[in-house]
Design goal:
There is one protein chain. By secondary structure, the chain is α+β, with helices and mostly antiparallel strands. It has a single domain, classed as 2-Layer Sandwich (HIT family, subunit A), CATH 3.30.428.10. It is built from 2 helices and 5 strands. It has a 5-stranded antiparallel β-sheet, covered by helices on one side. It is globular, with a radius of gyration of 14 Å.
Length: 120
């Protein structure tokens, strides 16, 4: 897998507004936010897509979700509510091929998500 923009952020080769980091993952503000709070939570280990997650990665992927919950609680929107989304491949909106969670909060998010982009 080639280096992505996320690898460069992890390696501090390009700047990002980092809000959380531990030994397994990093969370930072999305440069094109779709909600008042829009964070990306990325593993430090590169995995291209959901299709590339293997059994040994289950703890890492679970850690991403635990981190989302921790950040929501720390930032005070855990009780109000938030959305966590992971896209898989280009047709689903994945633009960086390094798995990541989108954590969105700060406004009513409605259902279904992204209805303006659906082609029925």
């Amino acid at each position: 897998m080639t280096d992505t923009i996320f690898t460069k952020i992890i390696n501090r080769e390009i700047p990002a507004d980092i809000v959380y980091e531990d030994e397994l993952c990093l969370a930072f503000k999305d440069v094109n936010p779709q909600a008042p709070v829009h964070l990306l939570i990325i593993p430090k280990q590169p995995i291209a897509t959901i299709n590339d997650i293997e059994a040994p990665d289950r703890e890492l992927v679970g850690h991403l979700f635990l981190t989302a919950g921790k950040i929501a609680k720390d930032m005070g929107f855990d009780e109000e509510g938030y959305r966590v989304v992971m896209n898989c491949n280009e047709a689903a909106g994945q633009t960086v091929f390094h798995i990541h969670l989108h954590l969105l909060a700060g406004k009513p998010l409605g259902w279904p998500p992204y209805t303006e982009n659906l082609k029925v």
